[in-house]
Design brief:
about 30% helix, two-stranded antiparallel ribbon, alpha+beta
Length: about 140
Amino acid sequence: MVRQIYFCPLLALYMKIDKIVSITGKPGLYRVLAETPKQIIVESLEDRRKRFPVSSNFQISLLDKITIFTSDNSDLFLGQVFDLMEKSELPLPSVQDSPAGIREYFKATAPNHNEAKVFMSDLKKILKWFTILNQTGENEKV
């Protein structure tokens, strides 16, 4: 019996962000350490000593499930955007840079994102998260 192995090139490109979450109302990113039916235990990526439970009262977003609106209505996952940013030869703009400069960076890096639906606050959040992942060494590949 011959086994066929299927390779999906998109999955090979993703950063390993499957256990990284954003919590509404809390700054930064967090790693999921444990899960229970009513809460999860998270650890701050920036301050590794800061661990705490998060109940279902908070909105929790897994980074690997976040998608960006595109002009052709396909899915552009956040991991793909991070990979495009990592491969880009353009200098990474700061969150404090002009909105026009940030928009130009994303036009060059992820040209198929929908400019009308992806707001500047979303782009700044992506930049902030990418910076946190790089500073904490969480930018390894799957």
